[in-house]
Amino acid sequence: MPSSSSSTNSASSRGSSVSSIPSQSPSLNSSPSPGGSPSPGGSTNSSSSPGSPSLSSTLSSSFSSSPLLVPTFLGFDVSQYPGDDKMTAFWDGTGTPFYFTGFYLAPAPNHSDASWMTKRSFLAGLGYGFLVVYVGRQTTNLTYAQGQTDGDDAVNKAIQAGFESAVIYLDVESGPPLSQDLLTYIGGWLDMVGSFAAWHPGVYCSYLTANQIKTSRPNMSIRFWVWRLSNPSPGCTTEVGSLDPTDSGVAYASSWQYAQNCTNQTWNNQTISPIDLDMSTTQNPSAS
């Protein structure tokens, strides 16, 4: 986990950054050690300037010079629900940069805290999009049948939480290479979630293991949310410039967790710490 310096954010107008596609992919030589990542969570502050142009006007002016521009939206994830006041402050229309939040389905095999489970309606009412995540098995009972059982459990937990359809991301904490047993479990989970018409399988994993998972299911459409904390990650800040999820080193990633365990995110006099910071190509990364 990276350490982060402490600082305080004052709210400014909300807005997404706009990045060109394809972006310059970073060299994999500057990769973190191949150990597992902590579960989805944060980093350094920053905000867009007041009175920034609307997304539509930004895209309009950008398209005049290049047709291959897409917006990048910021979000965050926290293992335990921070409370209604803090979640309101981090969305509040006075100008935070966040559009979506992680949402933990629980109890799950490696996430017992169910504090998010009753909050979907409240958060959707505020305007949040979601990264719906299920922390599955990591080291034991890694069979295809267990993956199927846990995939079914993930869908049932999502329904229990109030979702009618969603991309559900299986949290895979291990670094490379993934064992064949773990890939077998992941395959069972993906197959089960993908068997439901209203649900779509996704994976949260290291950028170094994404290809291994993708090639294990070459004919399956999987949404990837990858973590990469090394360069070109900007660290614990919301000033991300022209970065987008493909700069994680995974060309097909739609979301990128670029910082973890940040302690410097304060908006509208409310602080969430520790917090993980994410970016996505959409305001609602779990929209199916």
Instruction: Specify the biggest β-sheet.
Output: 8 strands, mixed, barrel
Structural class of the helices, strands and pairings?
A: alpha/beta
CATH topology: TIM Barrel
Give the domain tally: 1
Would you identify the regions where 5 or more consecutive residues have pLDDT less than 50?
Answer: 1-13, 18-67
Supply the CATH superfamily name: Glycosidases
Give the end-to-end Cα distance, rounded to a whole number of Å.
31 Å
What does this 3D model show about the protein?
There is one protein chain. The protein has 288 residues and is an alpha/beta fold. It has a single domain (40-48, 71-280), classed as Glycosidases (TIM Barrel, Alpha-Beta Barrel), CATH 3.20.20.80. Helices cover 22% and strands 22% of the residues. It contains 6 helices and 11 strands. The chain has helices spanning 55-63, 84-91, 120-126, 144-161, 180-194, 210-216; strands at residues 17-20, 69-77, 98-104, 129-135, 166-171, 199-206, 223-227, 255-262, 266-267, 270-271, 275-280. Helix 4 crosses helix 5. The chain starts with 16 loop residues before the first strand and ends in an 8-residue tail after the last strand. Mean pLDDT is 83; it is low at 1-13 and 18-67.
